[in-house]
Amino acid sequence: MIEITFLGTGCMQPTKNRNHSAIVLSYGKENILLDCGEGTQRQMRIAGIKPAKITRIFLSHWHGDHVFGLPGLLSTAGADKPDTIIHIYGPKGTKKFLENINTWFAAKELANYEAHEITAGKFYEGEEFFLHAEILKHSTPCLGFSFIEKDKHKINVAQAAKLGLSGPILGQLQQGQEVTVKGKKIKAAEVTYLVPGKKVSYIADTVPCEGAERLAQQADVLISEGTHLDEIKEKTEKFMHLTVKQAALIASENNAKRLVITHLSQRYKTPSEVLTEAKEYFPDSVVAEDFMKIKV
Ligand SMILES: [Zn+2]
Ligand SMILES: [Zn+2]
């Protein structure tokens, strides 16, 4: 199961209710942090997520509202568990920015990390999932992110019992292997069924673009920035962001299943008008709140 925890859902300036951008996607032992705005480690403490448990950090871009929490988080993660290697992924320039963090602060023990400068395409593949990036259009190099779970074969328990199958053989069948029991060959397809993997995508700061559309395609959960309502579209475009309407249209035109709007301007004191605009163009929308959790 994928669990998404929203740690920060505001944009330029934090408010009483919304911290700077940060989201944790948890899956098994993986805790992937998507952006790390100022104050993220305190938000993690409140949410009950330990900094040392972060396995990967995906940085969409190097604007302060997405990265100012990084020196503190790396410092705390280093003090807690210096052996852990955190893989940090970001656009071109990420290695240099991280080197600067190392030299600018008198930090005692930054976490061990490995920096990866990535571009569009698959940038990590594990046994159960892969990670994919798309190029977005913002005022500095910016990337979007997809977590894509692999399809799984599950055992049809009733069918397995009928054939008298149990023990390690079930594991082999689940991996798609053919087995022989009492001289009889049994194909995986006879006792398993396919459970399609889930896709969770994150559209960070951008104007509408093809990369954003690809991230949205068939996403089970699409997390997208929606900085302003469409009524001030010109201002939104000037700062190279999406309006809530644009985010909702990207979700609907690309067959996403659920939309979560985040990165809200401080001008919106309550989420109601944002939610109304999102739902007008994409009914299955919610507005993210700090500490909101979603299970996929
Ligand atoms: Zn931003
Ligand atoms: Zn930005």
Could you name the key traits of this structure?
single chain; 28% helix; globular; 296 residues
Write up this protein.
The protein is of the alpha/beta class. 28% of the residues lie in helices and 29% in strands. The protein contains 11 helices and 18 strands. Strands 6-5-4-3-2-1-18 form a 7-stranded mixed beta sheet. Helix 1 links the parallel strand 3 (30-34) and strand 4. Helix 10 (244-253) packs parallel to helix 11 (272-281). Residues 61, 63, 138, 205 line the site of one zinc ion (ZN).
Category by helix and strand content: alpha/beta
Order of helices and strands: EEEHEHHEHEEEEEHHEEHEEHEHHEHEE
Which regions are unreliable across 5 or more consecutive residues at pLDDT < 50?
A: none
With helices defined by DSSP (H or I, 4 residues minimum), what is the helix count?
11
Helix content: 25-40%
Number of strands: 18
How much β-strand is present in the residues? 25-35%
Largest beta-sheet details: 7 strands, mixed
Q: Could you tell me which ligands this complex binds, including any ions or cofactors?
A: zinc ion
Q: What Rg, in angstroms, do the CA atoms define?
A: 21 Å
User: CA-to-CA gap between the ends?
Assistant: 6 Å
Strand order of the largest sheet: 6-5-4-3-2-1-18
Mean pLDDT, to the nearest integer, reads 94
